[in-house]
Structure formats: structure tokens, C-alpha cells
Specification:
The protein folds into 2 domains: 143 residues, Recoverin, domain 1 (Orthogonal Bundle), CATH 1.10.238; 144 residues, EF-hand (Recoverin, domain 1), CATH 1.10.238.10. Helices cover 66% and strands 5% of the residues. It is globular, with a radius of gyration of 22 Å. The N terminus and C terminus are likely disordered. A hairpin with a 2-residue loop joins strand 1 and strand 2. It contains 18 helices and 8 strands. The protein binds 2-acetamido-2-deoxy-beta-D-glucopyranose. 2-acetamido-2-deoxy-beta-D-glucopyranose (NAG) binds next to helix 9 and helix 11. One of its GO terms (cellular component) is endoplasmic reticulum lumen. GO terms for molecular function: calcium ion binding.
């Protein structure tokens, strides 16, 4: 990996950190290709499954990174035939990522879990995140105070998200549930909530769908001045999302538009990794082939340091 590519990866990670501090999206949200160039950070994130794991790998010496990678690869090789195939790589999109995600979720959960019982109640979350007791929340809600409106709105959204994440309806989130609360995009059962949030933000006439005006106003807000060209592009985009061509985006169309298709992304990533790594072109990856291309699989800062010394 050249220094330039490494810097690109770091930039992408910096952007990712901004995004995830805002909304805790998983690394799989990083654009796979940027300006037509493949994004290494995406590969690394797909394999390691979390920003934390990625950061950790970046600090390792090459030999140590290879040793760790060897263990990861061994676990990927489900049928233990010493080869990693596309079938074994694709579930990365769900299971491996989920496992590492949960690991990364632990410390975040501990922050909210005031009584340390390995679950977070709404009361605990409300107190830590919004500095509210249930009683004070009720009092403030009754006040109808414009200065409180924004905070109360945020609390309400978090409460809905909390309820959606509380799958077994016990009123508290265990680690698996809390992972879905912090990474809603990656969990099917959180998608209804995400669609609700999109509608809330953009469905101004409250008809339960997003028409082109509502859609393009939002796009224009983000883009500032809009040229004729952009308008045409906007319309084309909208038409692509509007699968049944009724001039508005319904819930299913919104879902397909705003939520990543993790399965397709995982498959695409697997195909790419095999293409880049499979030196003898037998359609499967041996440990040697993977370790040969280990910088593609996991980054290593130490390697960049060596490069600096060479320059
Ligand atoms: C989404 O909105 C509908 C309609 O307002 C509501 O009935 C439903 O409970 C919401 N779902 C979630 C998960 O928040």
C-alpha cells in the first residue's frame, strides 16, 4: 500500500468517525468505491467488522497483524478444508460483523448501564444521555415550551428507537439488543424505525410517502445551489427509487433507498477480495494467498512507517 493510498484510507476513516459519532453506522456504510477508486478502508472494515478492531490492527507490526489475520482466516474457513471460498466470505456481512460489533458495543453499553447488570433500561439511558428522570421528562413534556421542543423531540425519537430495539419487550436492552440500538441500519427489525425517521424528516404533507418535491427539497438543502443538470439528475434518481412509477416513494421504496442492502454489499466485497487475492485463479483462497496480500485484508501502520524510512 502506498503512502497516498494509506492517507486516503485514513481520511475515509476520519469521515467514518464523524459519521459514526453522529449515528453509529457500521463501517460497512463506507463507500466501497470513491471516485472510481477502490477504497481499502472498506475491505479492512468488512473483514474486521468494527472501527475499534480496525484501529487496533492499524497499530500492529506486520508480523503481529499477519498472525492475527491467520486466526481470523482460520475461523472464516468453516468447513476447515484450508481454503476460503466466496460462500465462506459472504456471511461476513452479517455474522462476523455482528460479533465484532457486539464486542465494540460492550464499552458503550457499560457507559449507560448505571447499575452494572449488563442491560440498559430506558430510565438509565434517559438519565445518562439526556440528563432526565422519568418524572422530569413528564413535567417538561406538559410545559409546551418552545425552548425544550428540540430536546424533547430527540428524546422521543430515542424512546421509539429504544422500543424498536427491545425485541423481547422486557423494558431493557441486553448486549445484542443494544447493538441494534446503536447500529440500526444493520438490523432488519430496526428498519421500520429508520423509515419512520425518514418520513418524519421529509414527508411534509404527511401523506405517508415522499413525492418528488419533498425529495428534491431535501436534496437541494444539502447541495446548495442547484443547476439544471442537477435537477435532471435528481429526477432520474427519484425515478429509480420510484419502482412502481406512481410519482411517490412509499415505505418499501424508502426502505430500499435509505437502507443499505447488506447482503449485496457483502457479496460484492467477497467477490472483490477473491479477485484481488486469488493469485492462482482457482476460485478459492489459500492461507498463503491471503497472507501474501495481508495489507489488502487488514491495514498496518507499522508498514507505513517502514515506507517512510525507505523514502
Ligand atoms: C412507525 O410509525 C408508525 C406510524 O406512525 C407506528 O405505528 C410505528 O409504531 C412506528 N414504528 C416504529 C418502529 O417506531
Amino acid at each position: 500500500m502506498t503512502v497516498r493510498r494509506y492517507v486516503t484510507a485514513l481520511l475515509v476513516l476520519a469521515c467514518l468517525a464523524l459519521v459514526s459519532s453522529h449515528d453509529q453506522h457500521s463501517p460497512i456504510d463506507i463507500q466501497h468505491y470513491e471516485d472510481g477508486k477502490h477504497n481499502d478502508a472498506f475491505d479492512h472494515a468488512a473483514i474486521l467488522g468494527s472501527q475499534e478492531a480496525l484501529d487496533e490492527f492499524e497499530k500492529l507490526a506486520p508480523s503481529e497483524a499477519k498472525r492475527k489475520l491467520e486466526r481470523i482466516v482460520h475461523n472464516m474457513d468453516l468447513n476447515k478444508d484450508d481454503f476460503v471460498t466466496q460462500d465462506e466470505l459472504t456471511p461476513l456481512g452479517s455474522s462476523v460483523i455482528r460479533v465484532t460489533q457486539r464486542r465494540g458495543t460492550g464499552p458503550i453499553m457499560a457507559h449507560y448501564d448505571a447499575n452494572g447488570d449488563d442491560s440498559v433500561t430506558w430510565k438509565e439511558y434517559l438519565q445518562k444521555e439526556h440528563d432526565y428522570t422519568l418524572v422530569k421528562l413528564e413535567t417538561d413534556r406538559a410545559k409546551d415550551d418552545v425552548d425544550l421542543a428540540q430536546t424533547l423531540q430527540l428524546v422521543e425519537e430515542n424512546e421509539m428507537k429504544f422500543r424498536a430495539a427491545d425485541v423481547d419487550k422486557t423494558g431493557s436492552l441486553d448486549l445484542a439488543e443494544f447493538a441494534a440500538f446503536t447500529h440500526p441500519y444493520d438490523y432488519e427489525h430496526m428498519h421500520e424505525f429508520e423509515v419512520n425517521m425518514t418520513l418524519k424528516a421529509q414527508d411534509r404533507n404527511k401523506d405517508g410517502s415522499i413525492d418528488f418535491t419533498e425529495y428534491s427539497d431535501e436534496e437541494e438543502c444539502n447541495a446548495g445551489d442547484v443547476s439544471e443538470e442537477d435537477k435532471v439528475a435528481n429526477q432520474e434518481q427519484f425515478d429509480r427509487h420510484d419502482k412502481n412509477k406512481d410519482g411517490k416513494l412509499d415505505r418499501d421504496e424508502i426502505r430500499a433507498w435509505v437502507l443499505p442492502n447488506n447482503q449485496a454489499l457483502a457479496m460484492e466485497e467477497a467477490v472483490h477480495l477473491i479477485h484481488e487475492t486469488d493469485s492462482n485463479r482457482d476460485g478459492q483462497l489459500s492461507m498463503d494467498e491471503i497472507l501474501d496480500k495481508y495489507t489488502l485484508w487488514v491495514g498496518s501502520a507499522a508498514q507505513t512507517d517502514t515506507l517512510h524510512e525507505e523514502l
